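Justification of computing resources. Each target in the renewal requires a structure prediction run like the one illustrated here; the chain below, 118 residues long, is used simply to show the kind of job we budget for.
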Amino acid sequence: MSRFDFMRGYTYYILQCRDGSYYTGSTQDIRRRVWQHQNGQGANYTANRLPVKLVYFECYSRIDVAFKREKQLQGWSRKKKEALINGFVDRLHDYTVCLNGTHYRFAGRDKQAAQRKI
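Resulting structure tokens:
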């Protein structure tokens, strides 16, 4: 029995391509979808970077949740995806880039000074 036999419902997945890049997707049939990617029938991105390897997946009971997760992780940095792939979920926050004005306004100042300004 393979690890695919335990998957039911909808799956969010990450593939590692030959060039080391990552491709994220979601599907109802992970076994078929990985086969498609491996045989150049998945996405143009993976077809040009074969072979690919499944390095991470999450299973959900609803497709909208899997798709939402896919879109969320597509915006993540490489380091943050690698922390997730390697099971370092406690480090995910370390790789989050804050793009709001508060972050830049107080960059370089000590935390206490920044808190006084808020």
